[in-house]
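Researcher: Good morning. I'm working through a list of sequences from a screen, and I'd like to move beyond sequence-only analysis. For each chain I'm collecting a predicted structure so we can compare shapes side by side. This is the next one on the list. No need for commentary yet; just the structure.
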Amino acid sequence: MNDTNDAHRSFWTDLRSGTFEQGYLQAGEIRTRYLHAGDASLPTLLLLHGVGGHAETYTRNLIEHAEHFDTYSIDMVGHGYSSKPDHDYEIDDYVEHLRSVIDTLGCEKIFLSGESLGGWVAARFALKYPERLERMVLNTCGGATLNPEVMQRIKTLTMAAVSEPTWETVRARLEWLMADPATVTDDLVACRQAIYQQPGMRDAMARIMCLQEMEIRKRNNLSDEDWAAIETETLVLWTDKDPTAAVNVGEKIARLIPNARFALMTECGHWPQFEDPPTFNNLHLDFLLGRS
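Model: Good morning. Structure tokens for this chain:
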């Protein structure tokens, strides 16, 4: 999967083949940072990162998708360089932020893809606003498990990294996501370290981590009935080395959603879009464009 130069691969390598921009938009009360590539004449695709993440989750996918979609990768509320209101962030807070982003962009309907927390948000959005979606991808998504060990691991690694954002603590948080720790590039560590060094980021992360508390997670998770009520045509994309949930979790979600199909990527952990972008981009685009 990785060649000998991957450890030195830059975001500029990922993005140099196309035109892109970084910017901010006002989504309700949330000043929202985004990465964008594509043309407004194309259908809109929004990409949502995981817990503690940021828009750079998709630097290895943005340009390829911009050939077919007006593509935005956003920092969700509380994350990255977006606004960080002073309250715990439960799933509906992310859903309403996403709705405000879509409204600000002037879109009636969008294509939506979310990884981990982003997939959890996408699934809840599909239940609350099904009329706003064309197709949806749930990539190693949350919202279906209550594993105390995984929840504690996420909380421990993340709070360590944001409380003392050294190169080592930030790298450890990122390496946990990957099947092969060597996939974590220096650019990625430096990017996340800068985000975690922001004033107020530790307090914001504590609010983000509320979903790793059992009772809060229970009330935000989707039940079997919730999954079965999703109407949007969906791709459930999983990996064979995901540290957060086994393959059978993704398979169950795909069985429950009436208009879903399942795809498995091998030799990947929790970030298949970053670990194996050629395979991810092909699977992702084939589904979103109705080619498979």
